[in-house]
Design a protein that fits this description.
Shape: elongated
Number of domains: 2
Helix content: 40-55%
Number of helices: 14
Largest sheet: 6 strands, mixed
Distance between the termini: 46 Å
Strand content: 15-25%
Radius of gyration: 26 Å
Structural class: alpha/beta
Length: 388
């Protein structure tokens, strides 16, 4: 599969090209940078705008075969000269980079690049959401041009993304408190297709952020449906929860590593029933024994063989729940399933994290909860009041 290049690589390439055109007066329609991964990125430069004091140009983000909402976005860099008074002010801040001689490379975000409003992220509150690796890449490439042209004064680099605010609505940024646009990201400079690591990195960011806010407990759900259920059923705002996708086991590992003491996992039966069989990655490619597990619990609850066979033939867990409800065994079967879910969750945590669980179905609402889950309602309600 074809890999792509990150928004950070695009920003660095655009900044390098803009700096080159500003300092040499020569047009540049293609330029290459070396990514932190060591792979060369040959970028095409478009939408060039030149004036006496600044140059702006863009690189189109290509995510390769990775399904990325930022693919096709234009990542603009505007490079301009800085006055000495600006340089003195910038040197006192954390957003600058010292050069090879006396100048400063100041990096900031423009329209379509988000700004950080909550602690616990890569950048401090108030900074543009341009992570530290892309900042280093931009600084490195611009300074390379400065050295070649023997330019020893200061430059300003502003990264912007037309439609970035709209694109950001399809990302995690609103949940993370990054407002106004997308983030400029990338640690390796390349995008590996279908990268599970990107999802895991996002989960870690959300957990880090909550830890930085001083909490030793966290509410987790595999996806939006679970978070919506928490809000509708218990009044807990989904923006204060963490989405773990299919990576339940990895999320537990990270929560333990970050020092959390308690976790509440809320999820649809379609995913959580798998956990009752010890499956900690609930993606279908990792294992799908939902009906077999439900049938086994039904047998233990003395559900009639004909109904067990119906469950095994179901294509959805919601349909299996309906069968159990009709034969009067839903509560008993769900309680058995919850006992096993809690067993495997706590087995994964190895006693270092207390985990409670709530399981629901879209049509039937809450199906089961662990014994200690009741205490979470008070805890979450208190937090809700403090946040309002």
């Amino acid at each position: 599969m074809r890999f792509g290049f990150t928004t950070g690589s695009c920003a660095a390439a655009a900044a390098k090209a803009a700096a080159y055109m500003l300092l040499t007066g020569k047009k540049k329609t293609e330029i290459s940078i070396e990514t932190p991964k060591g792979i060369i990125f040959p970028a095409q430069i478009i939408d060039i705008s030149v004036s006496e004091s600044q140059v702006s140009c863009a690189v189109v983000k290509d995510g390769g075969d990775d399904p990325d909402v930022t693919t096709g976005a234009k990542i603009f860099a505007t490079v301009s000269y800085m006055e000495d008074s600006e340089k003195k002010s910038i040197e006192q801040g954390a957003d600058s980079g010292t050069d090879y001689a006396v100048g400063v490379i100041n990096i900031d975000g423009g329209p379509g690049v988000g700004r950080v409003t909550k602690p616990g992220l890569d950048q401090p509150v108030g900074n543009a959401a341009i992570n530290h690796v892309p900042r280093e890449m931009i600084k490195k490439e611009v300074l390379e041009v400065c050295k070649v042209t023997d330019y020893q004064r200061s430059l300003s680099v502003v990264i912007s993304v037309p439609n970035g605010e709209e694109i950001a609505k399809q990302t995690f940024n609103p949940r993370l408190g990054i407002v106004g646009g997308i983030s400029i990201l990338g640690t390796s400079g390349i995008v590996e297709p279908m990268s599970n690591q990107a999802i895991l990195d996002t989960i870690r960011v959300e957990l880090n952020q909550r830890s930085a806010q001083g909490y030793d407990y966290v509410a987790v759900s595999p996806g939006n449906y679970g978070l919506d259920f928490m809000k509708a059923a218990y009044g807990y705002d989904l923006d204060r929860s963490v989405k773990c996708s299919n990576f339940i086991g990895d999320t537990i590992d990270m929560a333990v590593e970050l020092g959390f003491k308690r976790m509440l996992l809320t999820g649809h039966i379609g995913k959580l029933i798998k956990v009752s069989g010890g499956i900690m990655n609930t993606h279908s490619k990792e294992g799908d024994c939902r009906m077999e597990l439900m049938a086994s619990f039904a047998i233990r609850a003395h559900v009639k063989p004909d109904h067990v066979r119906e469950i095994l033939d179901c294509v959805s867990t919601e349909e299996a729940v309906r069968i159990l409800k009709e034969c009067g065994k839903l509560e008993e079967v769900m309680d058995q399933a919850m006992d096993r879910i809690v067993f495997y969750l706590n087995k994964r945590a190895k006693g270092r994290l207390q985990i409670d669980c709530i399981m629901y179905a879209n049509e039937f609402g809450e199906l089961a909860r662990s014994r200690e889950a009741e205490k979470w309602f008070t805890l979450l309600a208190q937090e809700q009041e403090l946040q309002i």
